[in-house]
Design a protein that fits this description.
Layout (H helix, E strand, L loop, with lengths): L1 E8 L5 E5 L1 H7 L6 E6 L2 E6 L1 E3 L2 E5 L2 H7 L6 E8 L10 H8 L2 H9 L2 H5 L46 H9 L2
Antiparallel strand pairs: 1-2, 1-7, 2-6, 3-4, 3-7, 5-6
Length: 174
C-alpha cells in the first residue's frame, strides 16, 4: 500500500513517519505488523508501532541515508506485510555461551526479534567489541540480581530493551 507522509524528528536524532490508520487496517495484519518499507529505490524491514493511537514507522540514520531523505522531507512510502522469518545471526562467542546455558538460551530465543538483533558490545557508532566484554567493567563479576560496578541493576538477567543483550552476557559470564 502506498501513502505520502513526512519524515518527523522525534528528539535529537530519532526519526519516524506517521502511517495512516487506513493503511494499517488495509494490511490486515494486526496493529503492529512486520512490514517491508520502500522509499524511492531503498527497501528495508521494520515493524509499524502504535503510540497513543498513532501508527509510526521508524527510519534509522542508515535507512535515511540509503533512501536519500532527511527529517522534514515529504516522501512516498510503499509498505507490504513482511511474512519472511526474521533471522538473527548470533556472534560466535555469544552462541557458544548460550550453548552452555540452557535457561539463558531459551530466554534469549524467546526475546522479540529487535532484542535478539541488538548487537552485543556495540553502542552507537562504536566498533563492535567481543560480546563477553559488552557489559563493561565489572559485568563478569556481577552476581544475578545485583548491581554492576557502574551502579546499573541487572535483576534476573532481563533488563530494559537496550540492556537485554548485555544482561544475558552478565548471566553467562558467571
Amino acid at each position: 500500500m502506498r501513502f505520502r507522509t513526512t519524515v518527523e524528528l522525534g528528539g535529537k536524532t530519532a526519526t519516524g513517519m506517521r502511517v495512516p490508520t487506513e493503511v494499517v487496517e488495509g494490511l490486515a495484519a494486526g496493529k503492529k505488523p512486520a512490514v517491508r518499507v520502500t522509499i524511492g529505490a531503498h527497501t528495508y524491514r521494520s515493524t509499524i508501532a502504535s503510540r497513543g493511537g498513532i501508527y509510526l514507522l521508524p527510519v534509522s540514520a542508515e535507512n535515511r541515508a540509503a533512501a536519500g531523505i532527511a527529517a522534514g522531507d515529504d516522501v512516498d512510502v510503499d509498505v507490504e506485510v513482511d511474512t519472511e522469518p526474521r533471522e538473527v545471526t548470533v556472534p560466535e562467542d555469544l552462541a557458544a555461551a548460550l550453548a552452555g546455558d540452557e535457561a539463558a538460551r531459551r530466554t534469549f530465543e524467546g526475546l522479540p526479534y529487535s532484542h535478539r538483533a541488538a548487537r552485543p558490545g556495540r553502542r552507537g557508532d562504536e566498533e563492535p567489541r567481543d560480546a563477553t566484554a559488552a557489559g563493561g567493567e565489572g559485568a563478569r563479576d556481577a552476581p544475578r540480581g545485583h548491581a554492576l560496578a557502574d551502579g546499573r541493576h541487572r535483576g534476573s538477567g532481563i533488563a530494559s530493551r537496550r540492556g537485554a543483550p548485555t544482561a544475558f552476557l552478565v548471566i553467562l559470564a558467571q
